[in-house]
Design a protein that fits this description.
heterodimer; A: alpha/beta; five-stranded parallel sheet; 7 strands; B: alpha/beta; 5 strands; about 50% helix; globular
Chain lengths: ~190, ~230
Protein backbone atom coordinates (compact mmCIF):
# COMPACT_ATOMS: atom_id res chain seq x y z
CA UNK A 1 0.00 0.00 0.00
CA UNK A 2 1.15 3.55 -0.71
CA UNK A 3 0.33 6.73 1.11
CA UNK A 4 0.77 10.28 -0.19
CA UNK A 5 1.03 13.01 2.46
CA UNK A 6 0.57 16.57 1.20
CA UNK A 7 1.61 18.81 4.06
CA UNK A 8 0.67 22.47 3.73
CA UNK A 9 1.55 23.41 7.32
CA UNK A 10 4.37 25.83 8.12
CA UNK A 11 7.66 24.21 9.16
CA UNK A 12 7.55 25.88 12.60
CA UNK A 13 4.08 24.54 13.49
CA UNK A 14 4.64 22.25 16.51
CA UNK A 15 1.19 20.62 16.39
CA UNK A 16 1.63 19.76 12.72
CA UNK A 17 5.14 18.43 13.34
CA UNK A 18 3.89 16.18 16.18
CA UNK A 19 1.00 14.96 14.08
CA UNK A 20 3.26 14.30 11.11
CA UNK A 21 5.68 12.34 13.30
CA UNK A 22 2.92 10.06 14.68
CA UNK A 23 1.36 9.65 11.29
CA UNK A 24 4.65 8.47 9.80
CA UNK A 25 5.08 6.07 12.74
CA UNK A 26 1.56 4.72 12.17
CA UNK A 27 2.25 4.16 8.49
CA UNK A 28 5.53 2.39 9.24
CA UNK A 29 3.78 0.19 11.83
CA UNK A 30 1.30 -0.91 9.14
CA UNK A 31 4.11 -1.34 6.57
CA UNK A 32 2.68 1.33 4.30
CA UNK A 33 5.22 3.19 2.20
CA UNK A 34 4.75 6.93 2.29
CA UNK A 35 5.68 9.91 0.16
CA UNK A 36 5.75 13.18 2.09
CA UNK A 37 5.38 16.40 0.10
CA UNK A 38 6.20 19.44 2.24
CA UNK A 39 4.68 22.41 0.46
CA UNK A 40 6.31 25.00 2.74
CA UNK A 41 9.72 23.90 1.40
CA UNK A 42 8.75 23.93 -2.27
CA UNK A 43 7.80 26.68 -4.67
CA UNK A 44 4.69 25.95 -6.72
CA UNK A 45 3.12 28.43 -9.11
CA UNK A 46 -0.57 29.08 -8.48
CA UNK A 47 -3.34 28.20 -10.94
CA UNK A 48 -4.14 31.10 -13.26
CA UNK A 49 -7.31 29.58 -14.71
CA UNK A 50 -5.93 29.40 -18.26
CA UNK A 51 -7.74 26.03 -18.83
CA UNK A 52 -4.80 24.71 -20.88
CA UNK A 53 -5.15 21.49 -18.87
CA UNK A 54 -8.67 21.14 -20.29
CA UNK A 55 -8.28 22.25 -23.87
CA UNK A 56 -4.67 22.55 -25.03
CA UNK A 57 -2.79 19.84 -23.14
CA UNK A 58 -5.56 17.78 -21.49
CA UNK A 59 -4.60 16.52 -18.03
CA UNK A 60 -1.28 18.34 -17.98
CA UNK A 61 -0.54 21.78 -16.58
CA UNK A 62 1.55 24.22 -18.63
CA UNK A 63 3.75 25.02 -15.60
CA UNK A 64 6.60 22.55 -15.17
CA UNK A 65 6.89 22.22 -11.41
CA UNK A 66 5.70 19.99 -8.58
CA UNK A 67 2.12 21.06 -9.36
CA UNK A 68 2.34 19.01 -12.56
CA UNK A 69 3.49 15.88 -10.70
CA UNK A 70 1.02 15.92 -7.82
CA UNK A 71 -1.91 14.41 -9.77
CA UNK A 72 0.23 11.39 -10.68
CA UNK A 73 1.36 10.95 -7.06
CA UNK A 74 -2.29 11.18 -5.98
CA UNK A 75 -3.71 8.56 -8.35
CA UNK A 76 -0.82 6.16 -7.70
CA UNK A 77 -1.48 6.20 -3.95
CA UNK A 78 -4.01 4.12 -1.99
CA UNK A 79 -4.49 6.68 0.77
CA UNK A 80 -3.92 10.41 0.53
CA UNK A 81 -3.37 12.54 3.59
CA UNK A 82 -3.94 16.29 3.37
CA UNK A 83 -2.51 18.40 6.19
CA UNK A 84 -3.41 22.05 6.33
CA UNK A 85 -3.94 24.80 8.89
CA UNK A 86 -7.67 25.51 9.14
CA UNK A 87 -7.81 29.04 7.75
CA UNK A 88 -11.22 30.70 8.15
CA UNK A 89 -12.62 27.16 7.93
CA UNK A 90 -10.84 26.35 4.68
CA UNK A 91 -7.36 25.44 3.51
CA UNK A 92 -4.37 27.71 4.02
CA UNK A 93 -3.07 29.64 1.00
CA UNK A 94 0.01 27.41 0.85
CA UNK A 95 -2.06 24.21 0.70
CA UNK A 96 -4.75 25.65 -1.59
CA UNK A 97 -2.15 26.70 -4.15
CA UNK A 98 -0.93 23.13 -4.69
CA UNK A 99 -4.34 21.56 -4.18
CA UNK A 100 -6.06 23.69 -6.85
CA UNK A 101 -3.36 22.76 -9.37
CA UNK A 102 -3.68 19.08 -8.53
CA UNK A 103 -7.47 18.86 -8.63
CA UNK A 104 -8.00 20.67 -11.92
CA UNK A 105 -5.62 18.26 -13.67
CA UNK A 106 -7.53 15.30 -12.21
CA UNK A 107 -10.81 16.56 -13.69
CA UNK A 108 -12.09 16.19 -17.22
CA UNK A 109 -13.52 19.12 -19.16
CA UNK A 110 -16.83 17.20 -19.36
CA UNK A 111 -19.50 17.14 -16.69
CA UNK A 112 -21.79 14.49 -15.24
CA UNK A 113 -24.54 14.42 -12.66
CA UNK A 114 -23.75 12.88 -9.27
CA UNK A 115 -25.72 13.13 -6.02
CA UNK A 116 -28.11 15.60 -7.66
CA UNK A 117 -25.34 18.00 -8.64
CA UNK A 118 -23.18 18.65 -11.65
CA UNK A 119 -19.55 17.70 -11.27
CA UNK A 120 -16.67 17.17 -13.66
CA UNK A 121 -15.82 13.62 -14.70
CA UNK A 122 -12.57 11.94 -13.72
CA UNK A 123 -9.73 12.60 -16.15
CA UNK A 124 -7.95 9.29 -15.55
CA UNK A 125 -9.76 5.99 -15.59
CA UNK A 126 -8.25 4.70 -12.34
CA UNK A 127 -9.52 4.30 -8.80
CA UNK A 128 -8.82 7.34 -6.67
CA UNK A 129 -7.47 6.99 -3.14
CA UNK A 130 -9.36 7.52 0.10
CA UNK A 131 -8.63 10.81 1.79
CA UNK A 132 -7.61 11.57 5.36
CA UNK A 133 -7.78 15.33 5.95
CA UNK A 134 -5.97 16.72 8.99
CA UNK A 135 -6.87 20.27 9.89
CA UNK A 136 -4.54 22.02 12.31
CA UNK A 137 -6.09 24.78 14.39
CA UNK A 138 -4.59 26.84 17.26
CA UNK A 139 -7.67 26.49 19.49
CA UNK A 140 -11.01 24.70 19.18
CA UNK A 141 -13.44 26.60 16.95
CA UNK A 142 -16.62 24.71 16.18
CA UNK A 143 -17.68 27.05 13.39
CA UNK A 144 -14.39 26.77 11.49
CA UNK A 145 -14.24 23.00 12.09
CA UNK A 146 -17.72 22.54 10.61
CA UNK A 147 -16.80 24.56 7.50
CA UNK A 148 -13.60 22.50 7.10
CA UNK A 149 -15.48 19.21 7.39
CA UNK A 150 -18.06 20.40 4.84
CA UNK A 151 -15.26 21.45 2.48
CA UNK A 152 -13.57 18.05 2.68
CA UNK A 153 -16.85 16.19 2.26
CA UNK A 154 -17.72 18.16 -0.88
CA UNK A 155 -14.23 17.87 -2.30
CA UNK A 156 -14.00 14.10 -1.89
CA UNK A 157 -17.47 13.59 -3.37
CA UNK A 158 -17.43 16.11 -6.21
CA UNK A 159 -13.80 16.65 -7.17
CA UNK A 160 -11.58 13.84 -5.93
CA UNK A 161 -14.03 10.96 -6.58
CA UNK A 162 -12.67 9.29 -3.43
CA UNK A 163 -14.41 6.17 -2.10
CA UNK A 164 -14.16 7.38 1.52
CA UNK A 165 -12.81 10.20 3.65
CA UNK A 166 -12.06 11.08 7.25
CA UNK A 167 -11.57 14.51 8.79
CA UNK A 168 -9.42 15.01 11.89
CA UNK A 169 -9.00 18.37 13.58
CA UNK A 170 -5.85 18.76 15.65
CA UNK A 171 -5.67 21.70 18.02
CA UNK A 172 -2.73 22.94 20.06
CA UNK A 173 -4.72 22.60 23.28
CA UNK A 174 -5.08 18.82 22.80
CA UNK A 175 -2.80 16.41 24.60
CA UNK A 176 -0.42 14.24 22.62
CA UNK A 177 -2.35 11.10 23.65
CA UNK A 178 -5.62 12.57 22.37
CA UNK A 179 -3.92 13.39 19.07
CA UNK A 180 -2.50 9.89 18.77
CA UNK A 181 -5.87 8.29 19.51
CA UNK A 182 -7.71 10.47 16.98
CA UNK A 183 -5.18 9.66 14.28
CA UNK A 184 -5.28 5.93 15.05
CA UNK A 185 -9.10 5.80 14.91
CA UNK A 186 -9.38 7.84 11.69
CA UNK A 187 -6.64 5.84 10.03
CA UNK A 188 -8.35 2.56 10.96
CA UNK A 189 -11.63 3.86 9.49
CA UNK A 190 -9.94 4.89 6.25
CA UNK A 191 -8.25 1.54 5.81
CA UNK A 192 -11.52 -0.40 6.07
CA UNK B 1 -24.64 61.71 -0.61
CA UNK B 2 -21.73 61.11 1.79
CA UNK B 3 -18.41 60.31 0.11
CA UNK B 4 -17.26 56.85 1.08
CA UNK B 5 -13.96 55.10 0.50
CA UNK B 6 -14.86 52.04 -1.58
CA UNK B 7 -12.55 49.20 -2.61
CA UNK B 8 -13.68 46.67 -5.22
CA UNK B 9 -11.45 43.60 -5.05
CA UNK B 10 -11.09 41.35 -8.08
CA UNK B 11 -10.15 37.87 -6.87
CA UNK B 12 -9.63 36.32 -10.30
CA UNK B 13 -6.11 35.04 -11.08
CA UNK B 14 -6.66 35.28 -14.86
CA UNK B 15 -4.29 37.71 -16.54
CA UNK B 16 -6.92 39.02 -18.99
CA UNK B 17 -10.67 39.44 -18.79
CA UNK B 18 -12.67 37.62 -16.15
CA UNK B 19 -16.24 37.48 -14.88
CA UNK B 20 -15.09 38.87 -11.51
CA UNK B 21 -13.51 41.79 -13.35
CA UNK B 22 -16.62 42.39 -15.45
CA UNK B 23 -18.84 42.47 -12.35
CA UNK B 24 -16.39 44.76 -10.57
CA UNK B 25 -16.32 47.12 -13.59
CA UNK B 26 -20.10 47.26 -13.72
CA UNK B 27 -20.40 48.00 -10.01
CA UNK B 28 -17.67 50.64 -10.22
CA UNK B 29 -19.65 52.34 -12.98
CA UNK B 30 -22.74 52.32 -10.84
CA UNK B 31 -20.93 53.74 -7.82
CA UNK B 32 -19.63 56.56 -10.04
CA UNK B 33 -23.22 57.35 -11.04
CA UNK B 34 -23.85 57.76 -7.27
CA UNK B 35 -20.97 60.30 -7.11
CA UNK B 36 -18.66 57.86 -5.38
CA UNK B 37 -15.07 57.14 -6.41
CA UNK B 38 -14.46 53.44 -6.01
CA UNK B 39 -11.00 51.97 -6.32
CA UNK B 40 -10.65 48.69 -8.26
CA UNK B 41 -7.89 46.38 -7.09
CA UNK B 42 -6.81 43.07 -8.61
CA UNK B 43 -5.65 41.03 -5.62
CA UNK B 44 -3.05 38.86 -7.36
CA UNK B 45 -1.28 41.94 -8.75
CA UNK B 46 -0.87 43.34 -5.23
CA UNK B 47 0.70 40.22 -3.74
CA UNK B 48 3.77 40.27 -5.99
CA UNK B 49 6.00 42.38 -3.73
CA UNK B 50 6.15 43.53 -0.10
CA UNK B 51 5.63 47.13 -1.18
CA UNK B 52 2.44 46.27 -3.07
CA UNK B 53 1.20 44.24 -0.11
CA UNK B 54 1.71 47.29 2.14
CA UNK B 55 -0.21 49.42 -0.38
CA UNK B 56 -3.08 46.90 -0.39
CA UNK B 57 -3.20 46.86 3.40
CA UNK B 58 -3.32 50.68 3.43
CA UNK B 59 -6.24 50.67 0.98
CA UNK B 60 -8.15 48.28 3.26
CA UNK B 61 -7.24 50.30 6.37
CA UNK B 62 -8.69 53.48 4.89
CA UNK B 63 -11.73 51.84 3.23
CA UNK B 64 -15.33 52.17 4.45
CA UNK B 65 -16.68 49.54 2.07
CA UNK B 66 -14.85 46.48 0.74
CA UNK B 67 -16.51 44.32 -1.92
CA UNK B 68 -14.86 41.11 -3.07
CA UNK B 69 -15.64 39.50 -6.43
CA UNK B 70 -14.18 36.01 -6.50
CA UNK B 71 -14.42 32.92 -8.66
CA UNK B 72 -15.07 29.56 -7.03
CA UNK B 73 -12.05 27.25 -7.07
CA UNK B 74 -12.75 23.70 -5.89
CA UNK B 75 -15.51 24.77 -3.49
CA UNK B 76 -13.35 27.48 -1.98
CA UNK B 77 -11.82 30.80 -2.99
CA UNK B 78 -8.55 30.90 -5.00
CA UNK B 79 -5.32 30.62 -3.04
CA UNK B 80 -4.30 34.28 -3.46
CA UNK B 81 -7.67 35.42 -2.02
CA UNK B 82 -6.90 33.22 1.00
CA UNK B 83 -3.41 34.77 1.10
CA UNK B 84 -4.99 38.24 1.06
CA UNK B 85 -7.29 37.24 3.93
CA UNK B 86 -4.35 35.87 5.93
CA UNK B 87 -2.41 39.12 5.46
CA UNK B 88 -5.35 41.34 6.37
CA UNK B 89 -6.12 39.29 9.47
CA UNK B 90 -2.54 39.59 10.70
CA UNK B 91 -2.10 43.25 9.88
CA UNK B 92 -5.43 44.65 10.95
CA UNK B 93 -6.90 42.63 13.79
CA UNK B 94 -4.51 43.94 16.43
CA UNK B 95 -3.87 47.44 15.22
CA UNK B 96 -7.04 48.60 13.64
CA UNK B 97 -10.75 48.46 14.29
CA UNK B 98 -12.72 47.19 11.34
CA UNK B 99 -16.13 47.32 13.00
CA UNK B 100 -17.35 50.17 10.77
CA UNK B 101 -16.06 48.65 7.55
CA UNK B 102 -18.63 46.84 5.46
CA UNK B 103 -17.47 43.69 3.69
CA UNK B 104 -19.56 42.02 0.99
CA UNK B 105 -18.71 39.10 -1.28
CA UNK B 106 -19.91 38.04 -4.72
CA UNK B 107 -18.80 34.50 -5.50
CA UNK B 108 -19.21 32.99 -8.97
CA UNK B 109 -19.08 29.31 -9.87
CA UNK B 110 -18.92 27.64 -13.25
CA UNK B 111 -21.77 25.30 -12.29
CA UNK B 112 -24.78 25.58 -9.97
CA UNK B 113 -24.85 28.59 -7.64
CA UNK B 114 -25.36 26.33 -4.61
CA UNK B 115 -21.74 25.24 -4.99
CA UNK B 116 -20.67 28.63 -3.63
CA UNK B 117 -22.03 27.91 -0.15
CA UNK B 118 -18.81 26.80 1.55
CA UNK B 119 -16.73 29.55 -0.10
CA UNK B 120 -19.18 32.17 1.21
CA UNK B 121 -18.95 30.66 4.68
CA UNK B 122 -15.17 30.95 4.50
CA UNK B 123 -15.50 34.63 3.54
CA UNK B 124 -17.98 35.21 6.36
CA UNK B 125 -15.61 33.52 8.82
CA UNK B 126 -12.80 35.80 7.59
CA UNK B 127 -14.99 38.88 8.04
CA UNK B 128 -15.83 37.82 11.60
CA UNK B 129 -12.21 37.07 12.48
CA UNK B 130 -10.90 40.34 11.03
CA UNK B 131 -13.70 42.32 12.68
CA UNK B 132 -15.50 43.51 9.53
CA UNK B 133 -19.23 44.17 9.43
CA UNK B 134 -20.30 41.37 7.05
CA UNK B 135 -22.79 42.98 4.68
CA UNK B 136 -23.68 39.78 2.80
CA UNK B 137 -22.43 36.92 0.67
CA UNK B 138 -24.01 36.45 -2.77
CA UNK B 139 -23.68 33.56 -5.16
CA UNK B 140 -23.90 33.36 -8.94
CA UNK B 141 -24.02 30.13 -10.93
CA UNK B 142 -22.83 29.23 -14.45
CA UNK B 143 -20.85 32.45 -14.48
CA UNK B 144 -18.48 30.98 -17.06
CA UNK B 145 -21.12 31.87 -19.65
CA UNK B 146 -20.21 35.53 -19.14
CA UNK B 147 -16.55 34.73 -19.87
CA UNK B 148 -15.36 38.17 -18.75
CA UNK B 149 -17.43 40.11 -21.27
CA UNK B 150 -18.75 43.48 -20.04
CA UNK B 151 -22.21 42.91 -18.55
CA UNK B 152 -24.01 45.48 -20.75
CA UNK B 153 -22.81 43.52 -23.83
CA UNK B 154 -24.98 40.60 -22.71
CA UNK B 155 -28.09 42.45 -21.59
CA UNK B 156 -30.43 39.57 -22.30
CA UNK B 157 -28.49 37.26 -20.01
CA UNK B 158 -27.26 39.67 -17.37
CA UNK B 159 -30.27 41.93 -16.70
CA UNK B 160 -30.84 40.41 -13.26
CA UNK B 161 -27.14 40.48 -12.37
CA UNK B 162 -26.98 44.16 -13.31
CA UNK B 163 -30.04 44.87 -11.16
CA UNK B 164 -28.53 42.99 -8.21
CA UNK B 165 -25.23 44.87 -8.46
CA UNK B 166 -27.01 48.22 -8.90
CA UNK B 167 -29.17 47.67 -5.82
CA UNK B 168 -26.08 46.72 -3.81
CA UNK B 169 -24.17 49.81 -4.98
CA UNK B 170 -27.13 52.12 -4.29
CA UNK B 171 -27.68 50.79 -0.77
CA UNK B 172 -24.01 50.93 0.17
CA UNK B 173 -23.65 54.46 -1.25
CA UNK B 174 -26.52 55.62 0.95
CA UNK B 175 -25.16 53.84 4.01
CA UNK B 176 -28.07 51.38 4.05
CA UNK B 177 -27.88 47.62 4.56
CA UNK B 178 -27.96 45.45 1.42
CA UNK B 179 -31.38 43.80 0.97
CA UNK B 180 -29.93 40.30 0.93
CA UNK B 181 -33.13 38.49 0.01
CA UNK B 182 -33.78 40.74 -3.02
CA UNK B 183 -30.23 40.51 -4.30
CA UNK B 184 -30.16 36.73 -3.83
CA UNK B 185 -33.49 36.33 -5.66
CA UNK B 186 -32.13 38.27 -8.64
CA UNK B 187 -28.90 36.26 -8.74
CA UNK B 188 -30.83 33.01 -8.32
CA UNK B 189 -32.50 33.43 -11.70
CA UNK B 190 -30.42 30.98 -13.70
CA UNK B 191 -28.09 32.01 -16.49
CA UNK B 192 -28.49 28.46 -17.74
CA UNK B 193 -32.15 27.63 -17.29
CA UNK B 194 -33.89 24.31 -17.67
CA UNK B 195 -33.72 20.91 -16.02
CA UNK B 196 -30.44 19.23 -15.15
CA UNK B 197 -30.17 17.22 -18.39
CA UNK B 198 -30.47 20.41 -20.47
CA UNK B 199 -27.80 22.14 -18.39
CA UNK B 200 -25.54 19.09 -18.75
CA UNK B 201 -26.13 18.90 -22.51
CA UNK B 202 -25.32 22.60 -23.05
CA UNK B 203 -22.33 22.46 -20.70
CA UNK B 204 -20.81 19.40 -22.35
CA UNK B 205 -21.44 20.51 -25.93
CA UNK B 206 -19.69 23.82 -25.22
CA UNK B 207 -16.75 22.02 -23.61
CA UNK B 208 -16.44 19.69 -26.61
CA UNK B 209 -16.43 22.66 -28.99
CA UNK B 210 -13.68 24.34 -26.98
CA UNK B 211 -11.63 21.14 -27.01
CA UNK B 212 -12.02 20.85 -30.79
CA UNK B 213 -10.87 24.42 -31.25
CA UNK B 214 -8.27 24.13 -28.43
CA UNK B 215 -9.32 27.60 -27.39
CA UNK B 216 -11.54 28.90 -24.63
CA UNK B 217 -11.26 32.62 -25.34
CA UNK B 218 -14.35 32.62 -27.53
CA UNK B 219 -15.51 29.34 -26.10
CA UNK B 220 -18.84 30.54 -24.88
CA UNK B 221 -19.99 31.82 -28.26
CA UNK B 222 -21.42 28.40 -29.09
CA UNK B 223 -23.29 28.49 -25.81
CA UNK B 224 -24.74 31.94 -26.51
CA UNK B 225 -25.91 30.70 -29.91
CA UNK B 226 -27.42 27.55 -28.43
CA UNK B 227 -29.16 29.53 -25.70
CA UNK B 228 -30.72 31.83 -28.29
CA UNK B 229 -31.88 28.75 -30.18
CA UNK B 230 -33.54 27.28 -27.13
CA UNK B 231 -34.81 30.35 -25.38
CA UNK B 232 -35.38 33.16 -27.90
Amino acid sequence: MKCLIINGCPTNDKTAATCSKYLTALLTEHQISNQHVKLAETYIKGCIGCLNCFFKSPGECRFKDLGRDLPQYFIKSDISVFMSPVTFGGFSACFAKAYNRMVIQLESHLGEVACGELRRRKRFNTAHPSVLAIGVIPAQDQGAEKIFTDLIQRNTRLHLHSPSYEVVIMSSDQSVDQMKQQLKTSFANIRR
Amino acid sequence: MQQRSIILLNGSPKPGQSTSGAMSDFMAGHFEKNNQEPKQVKICAYLKSDEKVRTLVEYIKTADIVILFTPLYVDSVPYHVIKFMEIIREQLEEHHTNANKKFAVFCQSGMERTKNRVALEICKCFAGTAGFDFAGGFALGFAGILNGLPLPNLNRLTGNIQKALSITADCLSQGNPIPGETVNKLLAKPLLPGPMFVKLFLFNSTMKTCLKKKDFSNGLKPLHSKLKLFFS
